[in-house]
Amino acid sequence: MAVxxxxxxxxxxxxAELLAALPADRVLLDPDVMATYQHDEAEWAEFGRAxxxxxxxxxxxxxxxxxxxxxxxxxxxxxxxxTGLSGGANAVDGCVVLSTERMREIVEINAAERLAVVQPGVxxxxxxxxxxxxxxxxxxxxxxxxxxxxxxxxATNAGGLCCVKYGVTRDYVLALELxxxxxxxxxxxxxxxxxxxxxxxxxxxxxxxxxxxxxxEVTVKxxxxxxxxxxxxxxxxxxxxxxxxxxxxxxxRGVQPAAFExxxxxxxxxxxxxxxxxxxxxxxxxxxxxxxxxxxxxxQEAEAIHAEFVAAGASDAMLSTDEVExxxxxxxxxxxxxxxxxxxxxxxxxxxxxxxxxxxxxxxRIEQIAARHDTPIATVAHAGDGNLHPxxxxxxxxxxxxxxxxxxxxxxxDAALELGGTVTGEHGVGLLKLSGxxxxxxxxxxxxxxxxxAALDPQGILNPGxxxx
Length: 469
Fold this sequence. Notes:
Layout: H1 13-21, E1 27-28, H2 31-35, E2 52-54, H3 59-71, E3 76-79, E4 96-99, E5 106-110, E6 115-118, H4 124-132, E7 136-137, H5 150-156, H6 163-166, E8 173-179, E9 185-189, H7 201-205, E10 214-221, E11 223-224, E12 231-237, H8 240-252, E13 259-264, H9 265-275, E14 285-291, H10 297-311, E15 316-320, H11 323-334, H12 336-341, E16 346-349, E17 352-353, H13 359-372, E18 377-382, E19 387-394, H14 399-418, H15 434-441, H16 443-456
Parallel strand pairs: 2-4, 3-4
Antiparallel strand pairs: 1-2, 5-6, 6-10, 7-11, 8-9, 8-10, 12-14, 12-15, 13-14, 13-18, 16-19, 17-19, 18-19
């Protein structure tokens, strides 16, 4: 259903029902304001024009919104902070966009059970700060953690810098409260350390990108706050292939860093230009590895990583216990994407994940793809788990450059699949990875996924066109 601005047209029945059911400040109808809610940060992912944007504050209000959409068979697109990079939160014409940004309550922090219960609009870093006051830690830490929300992280199964050792969002979700496509409020999962009663519906919802239900509350498990001093190993490499070899060597040695990141020369230049960070720009790549084990194991692990960097041909490698210096280096990794945005032009961000032993080969193939398509590609990576984020750059208005970048994007997906990888490690499928996911899974598995979607959302109103198409 297309949205019309004709004042003589009959009122939209869904909008009328929402206005009657919710406080007036929950429903946004101003076109300029709604425009800011109609897409995430995925470059070139299509989006439509919503009929309304709703910002509920409670589960009951979410249920009222979903029920109204169900009665009218109207598309509903949930969104968190809109920091996604796959188009998963993009509006479709005539839909209702449901933003959870006002559902920000930390309901419970239970130190004895090491869990927290939060509404989906709680910002990741705010949760981490709150549980730290209780001597606890919530490990998932996507680069967008100062802005992204827990609900959005659950919807995309977000990863982050610490996931190489501590796992992704899925590993910390114990239970969910959600609103089904019929507008019913249900709870899935459990608060206990163990539980195998029935199918793992909480696990099914993690990474489903709002296509199976609208998350209204999340119960996450926590770990004790890390107290051991962290040691950081820095390596500079003259080629991306040598940096990839260093990652393979560390992995083969059985060392498990708490974080293991790669930043290429283009990204280093961008961060320096934006933040005047004083980072070295002569190397092809910078590797950052960090250990958080207590001594003497921490020192031994750091020395082992350093030795493998040297063996891989690092032009320089050093071991540091200066946490201020280390935080500055890891902040540079987090700033890579926004720093690239400062260069102007459009950035199409990839998110492939490879077996770690194939990282060097994949980095080499990315360089070949960039040359073949005459497209600049900058790369950062969660190197320790093989999750690469090549960023393809084009100038605004350069349609030929856009076409080349899109072709390069698909070639990167194909290369990842040829090397035994996956088309998305943490950003999700959304819109940008639909064809890549089909190539990866095959028609039989895609059909299974569509059957699940049809069973839980028979009208197809929840985030239509995403994930399974």
